[in-house]
Write a structure and sequence with these properties.
The complex is a heterodimer. Chain A is an alpha/beta fold. Chain A has 15 helices and 29 strands. The longest helix of chain A is centred in the C-terminal third of the chain and has 21 residues. Chain B is 26% helix and 27% strand. In chain B, a hairpin with a 2-residue loop joins strand 8 and strand 9. Classes of the chains: A alpha/beta, B alpha/beta.
C-alpha cells in the first residue's frame, strides 16, 4: 500500500492581498506622522531610536528638519509581550546604537559562560566539538522581551510615539507608493458586530513606513507579493517552543543539542541557557519542512525535558513561562532581492535576517533598523522618499557584515533538507570551505510544498515535568477575549489527515478534529505564525490579544 | 443638554491582576521587577463614567488625580488617553498604605477644586480596602455612595444604584458628592490612537506631598500557601462513588 501523504499547500488559502493592500483613500480622521515603524521588536525599535537621535543631533547642529514625528506600532499590549527568542545575543548592534553606554548598561544578563554541544540518543548524550559557527565568547544570554521593553523606554525618552496595542492590518497605498497603514478595529464580537466599547480602525500615514513585523509579517508578505519581489530561494521556517524554568541547581553552560528526539528526516535541535542564577530558558526548534505529518514540537519538548541532560536541572524546579514562535531559516538565498520601495522599507525577520548556523538574528535585526534610520534620515533631508531615494538601504545592507555573515553560511541549513546525516556532512564541508561548498545554491521549495507522510510517532511525555498545550497557553499569559472574531482562515474541505497535521503542528491547541470536521479554538493562538506557513492563514487580532511574555 | 459638570476621578496604579507577585525580602513590599502595572480596573469604571456624564452634559471638565510615585504619571496618561482633560499627580515615594492617610492627602487637594462630583473605584485591587473614596467623602463633609453599579446626574442631584443581597438599592443624593464605582456600571472604552497622541500634550501637574504619620503599619506580607496538587479520583460514572467518599471523609464538606 502506498504511503498516504499530505501536502500542506494543497489546502492553504492564498494571502488575501486585495484585503491587505488598500487603494482607498485614508480615513478623514487620519493621523499624519513623518515616519512610521510597524512592529516593536529589535528592528523597529533600533530604527526608531537611531532616527530620533540623528534628527535630534541634526537639529542641534542647525539642521532644518525641525520636529519630525516618529511613530511605532506594536500589536502586543505592552512592548516585549510578543517577542520570543532563545536568546544568546551578540551585542555588536546594541553597541553601535548606544555608543555612550557599556555592555553592563544593557539588559543583557550573563556573559555566556561556556558552550557545550551534544548529540542526543534516547538515553545518552555525546559531547561534540563546538562547531566554529556556534562559539559564543563575548555574547550574552538575554531575554528579548526585556531588551525590547528597555529599548522602548529609550525610544520614548527620545520622543518617539510608541503605540503598543495597535496591530497593523492593512497597507494604505496609492499607485506603487505606500502611504501608511490601517490598524485593526477593537471591540468586535464573534460575528463581527460592534460591542459597547467598539473602536474603529485608525489610519496612520507617513512619508516612510518601515515594516518590521517580524517573522512572517502579514503586511510584508503582502507587499512582496503585490510588488512581485522574489528571492533566489523561497523563505523557509522553523517552529520553536520555549519554556522558562525556575531551578534550584544553577546551569553553568550554554547547551545545544542535535539528534533525539527529532526524527532523522527533520532539521532542528534544542537549547538550554542560564538566564539568571535560578532561571533557565530551554526550547526545541524544528524546521517546518519536516516529513512526518504528526510531528509535534511541543510534544517532543516535553519528552526532551525527561532526558537526563535536562531533567537534572529541571527536577524540583517550576515552569514560569511558556511560548512559541517561528523563525525564518532560509538565510542568504531567501533574503528578497529588494527591501525598499516607494515610501517603504522592510527590516529584520520580515526579510529573514537570521543566521541559522550561529543561531543569531537579533543583532542583524537591530542593524537593519540602524541602516533603515540612516537611509530615512538622508531621504527626509533631501525631501525625497521615493523608491530610488530609499534604495540606499539595500546597498547598505548588502555591503554590511549582516549579508556577509549570511553569505558565508549560505548552504549550511539548506544541506539538511535531505536529512540529518547528509546534512551534517554537507554542513561540515560548507564550514571548512568558508561557504564555497557545494559550489552553488542548494535549491529549496516552500515548506508548505514538502509532502508529509501520514503516521509515525514522535517521542513525547506526560510525566511530572510535562505541560499540556493548554497549560502552556495559560503560562504564555494569553488572555485573549473568547468572543473575538476568528483570525485564522482555513482552506475548504479540510480532510482528517490534514487536520491532524494541524493539530500536531500547533503548539497552542488551536486545532482539533471533532465530529468529522476541523475545529479552530482561535483565542488559544499565541501568534507563533507556524499556521501561516503550513496551515490556515493568520491575520492580526485586536490590540493586546495573544501572549503576554515577560522574560521570553 | 444638561449642566456643566466638573468631575474629579481618583485613579491608582496597581499591579496587573495577572502578574505573578513576589515579595521583596529587602523592603517587605512586593517586588516590582517584571510586574506589569495598570490602572486599577475599578478606577477605569470611574473614568468611563465621568467621561460619559460629561459627554451627556455637553460641557464640563474631567480631572484625574493620582497619589503615588512618579511612575503614576503613566496611570494618569492612560486616563487622559481615554479622554480626561487634565491630570494631577500628588507625588510621594512613600504613598501611604493606610486609606485614612491617603484620603487626607486626596481630600486636601479636592477641597477647593469646585468639583460637582468625585468618583473613584470602590476598591483598589492591590490592597482591597474599599475605604479611601468614602473616607474622602467624610473628610469633605459630602454625601458618599459606595459601590455604585448605576449612576444618573441631573440638576444638582444624583441617583445611584447599588447591588445588594437579592436586589438593587437606589440612593438619591445632592451634589457635590463622592461616588465609588462597581463593576457593571459601564464598559470602559479603549483609548484610541488619536486619544493617546492627544494625551501626550494634555496638562499634567505634579505636586509634591508629604503623608502624615499613619497609625497603621504593615508588619509583613506573605504569599498564600501553595495548594496541594489535585488528584483524579476516577473518570465518568466510576468516579462518582470515590468522589463522594473523598468529599465526606477527606474534605469533610458533605
Amino acid at each position: 500500500m502506498a504511503k498516504q501523504v499530505v501536502r500542506p499547500s494543497d489546502k492553504q488559502p492564498d494571502l488575501p492581498i486585495d484585503k491587505i493592500v488598500l487603494t482607498e483613500k485614508p480615513d478623514d480622521e487620519v493621523i499624519e506622522m513623518d515616519v512610521l515603524f510597524v512592529g516593536g521588536g529589535p528592528a523597529g525599535l533600533a530604527g526608531a531610536i537611531e532616527l530620533a537621535r540623528l534628527i535630534k543631533r541634526d537639529n542641534e547642529n542647525g539642521g532644518s528638519l525641525g520636529d519630525v514625528e516618529i511613530a511605532l506600532l506594536e500589536k502586543a499590549e505592552t512592548l516585549g509581550e510578543h517577542c520570543l527568542s532563545g536568546a544568546v545575543v551578540n551585542p555588536r548592534a546594541l553597541r553601535e546604537l548606544f555608543p555612550d553606554l557599556t555592555d553592563s548598561d544593557f539588559p543583557l544578563g550573563n556573559p555566556v559562560p561556556k558552550d557545550s554541544v551534544y548529540f542526543l540518543t534516547p538515553g545518552g548524550a555525546t559531547r561534540l566539538p563546538t562547531p566554529p559557527t556556534m562559539h559564543n565568547k563575548g555574547n550574552y544570554v538575554a531575554s528579548i522581551s526585556e531588551i525590547t521593553r528597555w529599548m522602548g523606554e529609550k525610544a520614548e525618552e527620545l520622543g518617539v510615539n510608541v503605540f503598543p496595542g495597535f496591530p497593523a492590518a492593512a497597507l494604505l497605498v496609492e499607485d506603487d507608493r505606500v502611504l501608511g497603514v490601517r490598524t485593526t478595529p477593537t471591540g468586535l464580537d464573534r460575528d463581527g458586530g460592534e460591542t459597547a466599547n467598539f473602536m474603529p480602525a485608525a489610519d496612520i500615514t507617513a512619508k516612510v513606513t518601515a515594516l518590521a513585523e517580524g517573522c512572517r509579517g502579514m503586511l510584508s508578505q503582502a507587499y512582496q507579493q503585490w510588488q512581485k519581489i522574489s528571492s533566489e530561494n523561497p523563505q523557509i521556517y522553523a517552529l520553536g517552543v520555549k519554556e522558562l524554568w525556575e531551578t534550584t541547581i544553577p546551569l553553568r553552560s550554554v547547551i545545544h543539542t542535535m539528534g533525539w528526539p527529532l526524527p532523522r528526516d527533520a532539521f532542528g535541535g534544542s537549547f538550554m541557557y542560564p538566564l539568571s542564577e535560578n532561571v533557565v530558558a530551554l526550547g526545541l526548534v524544528v524546521g517546518l519542512d519536516y516529513r512526518q505529518a504528526n510531528l509535534d514540537v511541543h510534544g517532543m519538548l516535553q519528552g526532551l525535558k525527561e532526558h537526563s541532560l535536562f531533567e537534572r536541572y529541571l527536577a524540583g524546579g517550576e515552569l514560569v513561562e511558556w511560548g512559541a514562535k517561528t523563525i525564518p531559516e532560509g538565510g542568504y538565498y531567501s533574503v528578497p532581492s529588494r527591501n525598499h520601495g516607494d515610501g517603504v522599507l522592510l527590516l529584520g525577520d520580515s526579510i529573514g535576517l537570521v543566521d541559522v548556523p550561529s543561531l543569531k538574528g537579533i543583532h542583524y535585526a537591530m542593524q537593519s533598523g540602524i541602516y533603515a534610520a540612516k537611509t530615512i534620515f538622508e531621504a527626509l533631508k533631501a525631501g525625497d522618499t521615493s523608491a530610488s531615494a530609499l534604495s540606499d538601504y539595500d546597498r547598505k545592507l548588502k555591503n554590511s557584515y549582516v549579508m556577509k555573515d549570511l553569505k558565508k553560511t549560505r548552504n549550511i541549513r539548506l544541506g539538511y533538507k535531505d536529512g540529518f546525516i547528509a546534512g551534517t556532512i554537507k554542513a561540515g564541508l560548507a564550514t571548512v570551505t568558508g561557504g564555497a561548498f557545494p559550489g552553488g545554491r542548494i535549491a529549496m521549495e516552500p515548506d508548505a510544498d514538502v509532502e508529509k507522510v501520514v503516521g509515525g510517532a514522535t517521542p513525547t511525555a506526560t510525566g511530572r515535568l510535562s505541560v499540556s498545550k493548554v497549560d502552556g497557553v495559560f503560562k504564555s499569559g494569553n488572555s485573549t477575549r473568547d468572543t473575538i472574531p476568528e483570525h485564522l482562515q482555513a482552506g475548504d474541505d479540510i480532510d482528517q489527515a490534514t487536520a491532524e497535521m494541524y493539530v500536531n503542528m500547533c503548539p497552542a491547541h488551536v486545532y482539533e478534529w471533532v465530529d468529522g470536521g476541523l475545529r479552530i479554538n482561535a483565542p488559544n493562538c499565541v501568534d507563533c505564525k507556524a499556521t501561516d506557513v503550513l496551515g490556515p492563514r493568520w491575520s492580526p487580532r485586536e490590540g493586546g490579544s495573544g501572549p503576554k511574555y515577560k522574560r521570553m | 443638554m444638561g449642566d456643566q459638570l466638573k468631575i474629579a476621578v481618583l485613579v491608582k496604579r496597581v499591579p496587573d491582576s495577572e502578574a505573578r507577585i513576589k515579595i521583596d525580602s529587602g523592603s517587605g513590599g512586593i517586588d516590582p521587577a517584571s510586574v506589569k502595572f495598570v490602572v486599577n480596573p475599578y478606577d477605569e469604571y470611574a473614568v468611563e463614567e465621568a467621561l460619559a456624564l460629561k459627554e451627556k452634559a455637553g460641557e464640563g471638565e474631567v480631572v484625574v488625580i493620582s497619589l503615588g510615585a512618579d511612575s503614576s504619571q503613566e496611570t494618569l496618561r492612560s486616563a487622559l488617553a481615554m479622554g480626561a482633560d487634565r491630570g494631577v499627580l500628588l507625588k510621594t515615594e512613600n504613598a501611604p498604605t493606610d486609606p485614612f492617610a491617603a484620603a487626607q492627602i486626596l481630600a486636601a487637594e479636592l477641597e477647593d477644586g469646585g468639583f460637582d462630583l468625585i468618583l473613584s473605584g470602590k476598591l483598589a485591587i492591590d490592597d482591597y480596602h474599599h475605604a479611601t473614596g468614602i473616607i474622602v467623602a467624610e473628610l469633605l463633609g459630602l454625601p458618599g455612595v459606595s459601590a455604585a453599579s448605576g449612576l444618573t446626574v441631573e440638576s444638582g442631584k444624583g441617583s445611584a444604584e447599588r447591588e445588594i443581597e437579592g436586589g438593587v438599592e437606589v440612593v438619591d443624593f445632592q451634589l457635590p458628592a463622592v461616588v465609588t464605582c462597581d463593576k457593571g456600571l459601564n464598559e470602559p472604552r479603549y483609548p484610541a490612537l488619536k486619544g493617546i497622541m492627544m494625551a501626550k500634550k494634555k496638562p499634567l501637574e505634579v505636586k509634591d506631598v508629604t503623608p502624615a504619620d499613619s497609625g497603621v503599619e504593615v508588619v509583613g506580607l506573605d504569599l498564600p500557601p501553595a495548594r496541594p496538587e489535585g488528584r483524579i479520583v476516577g473518570e465518568g460514572v466510576d468516579g462518582v462513588a470515590p468522589l463522594i467518599a473523598a468529599l465526606q471523609q477527606e474534605a469533610k464538606v458533605l
